[in-house]
């Protein structure tokens, strides 16, 4: 302890520290009994642990408290280190932090309840002083216990995250993942639904005076929590605030996924986007664990095609972008399609008007989107027809123009 002056606290006519030291073994048993009685989680611990480690911690805590009463000083670093180590063991056992801290307070309550009935009228000042010193003791002990617990939990979390990342890396690299999964305590499911996501900015990320990094991390945390809440099993992710990859376990084989499964995934993604407070573009493909690396590449390609084609936020599969996907593959047909729009190169007004018209499906809708007069839209569309020989207002030319735009986008990305 720091300090050696005896405050001389007396209750029941005797020095308080001396009185507690005499009954320490029986007091420790009373504290243990009360903790077990009031905290269900402690009743689940092995009897050997209760009579051994837990009792030892209670006795040491009582000794520290008695020393505080004897000297008026708070526990030493060595005594606090003992309590930190004890809290770390509780973290390893999975006992929640609030339960651990409650046990310490119960110990103090038991001690206090054993003393106050014997207090005499002339000892009221000592009772009040001891109460204040008790609060000081808890003020020092509680953060130490919390820090020891949280440090261990962080270490456990880092180890768990590292083990899961090893599984994710093996799956995405096309390597056998069984060993890594076993080390991480995971069972590989029959199927993983691979989600390649692009996440838009949360409004807070664009507000002056708000740290965009903090806002982005908050968005990412909400996204992860909601995704893990909705998916059964362990979700493996490699996500940043801008997006990334998530592997969603599924108990159905990849080739047996139903329309209902995909519809549910769409609802999950909508909930995730709403919770994150940001637009989410995602593409998905399913595969058994050994095929995850191929499915991941496909999902990323589908995501790139869907966003390049101007699709709205949402979930996309290959079937949703078959034409655009095929046109994104190199080949002579794609090159010839892209050349059809070569006369428009350098004229962003015409290209933007054409893209908007094909997406919106009408001159007035296009004019509203571009903030121009409908007559301006008509003029620009006529210019497109004159330059390319393809008229956006003719039904037989629309499919070819859409294909040409997809081909142009694909070639521009290369």
TrEMBL record:
All copies of domain PucR C-terminal helix-turn-helix, residue ranges: 350-406
Pfam families: HTH_30, RsbRD_N
Gene3D superfamilies: PucR C-terminal helix-turn-helix domain
Taxonomy, superkingdom: Bacteria
Protein name per its UniProtKB record: Transcriptional regulator
Residue ranges occupied by any RsbT co-antagonist protein RsbRD N-terminal domain in the UniProt entry: 25-164
InterPro entries: CdaR-like_regulators, PucR_C-HTH_dom, PucR_C-HTH_sf, RsbRD_N_dom
